[in-house]
Amino acid sequence: MTFDVKNKTVLVTGANRGIGKAILEEAFRRGVAKVYAAVRNTDSASPLVAEHGERVVPIRVDLDDPKSITAAAATATDVDVVVNNAGVMKISSAIGDDAIETLQFEMNANVYGLIRVAQAFAPVLKANGGGVFAQLNSIASVKTFPDFATYCASKAASYSITQGLRGTLGAQGTHVVSVHPGPIQTDMGAAAGFGEIAASPSMVATATFDAIAKGRFHVWPDPMAEQVGAAYQSFAENIVEADMQESLA
To answer: What tens digit of pLDDT does each residue of 167-225 get?
Structure first.
């Protein structure tokens, strides 16, 4: 299912910095008409408005606040593409003293937040002809790193939900995209100590819109992600992306 974003309306969660900001900028390079910058504090989107004018519409979305998400969906009724980029990460191993609390925090934003956004915007996308729902997952969705075990668990869960959305939203004509970056040059990446191995956020933005244009589900946007994706490709094509309904009947 290919999709041309030119002259369309896009909503990006966490659009004020990092990958979200890069996605917003790439959206305008691709010719979109308007971007809703969905952020916790709308004042943080002021520099985006100063740069792009009225084509940027700040709108409050806090993944921890379900009411903010439903209110945003009631306002942004013209959305054609939703990119759920916002997420959180803490550093904790599976046996860390704060592992349970950290996992609860990460699951609430990274998984429950995804579900809330999908529930709120699925009817909007359907009403506007189907459109696209893109979810920022991670290579941590398919590979657990010991020092980030709880984050990896939350991203594995968000990837699982994204696979479910692919089937559910696909039935209403909405193309779903699952983006799996490796270490990226963001505030989150710096806090995690990724340093020189981190890739540019622009690589994620470009690869995401390429996947939207070409109708692909999986996106492995940077050098480390490409290595993981190459190893994962057979499973992805033959299991994740395959129609297994008949074999499970």
So the answer is: 999 999 999 999 999 887 655 645 555 656 667 999 999 999 999 999 999 999 999 99
Structural domains in the chain, sorted by start: 9-241 (3.40.50.720)
CA separation, residue 34 to residues 16, 50, 51, 117, 174 (Å): 15, 14, 13, 19, 19
What does the mean pLDDT of the chain come to? 93
Catalytically annotated residues: 151, 155
Residue in 237, 20, 135 with CA at minimum distance from that of residue 35: 20
pTM of the shown model: 0.93
User: Do residues 201 and 185 touch, judged by C-beta distance below 8 A?
Assistant: yes
What residues contact 91, with CB distance under 8 A and at least 6 apart? 147, 148, 151, 191, 192
Query: CA dihedral defined by 81, 62, 38, 149, rounded to 10 degrees?
Result: -70
Looking at the DSSP assignment, which residues form a beta bridge with residue 84?
A: 135
Q: Give bridge partners of residue 39 from the DSSP assignment.
A: 60
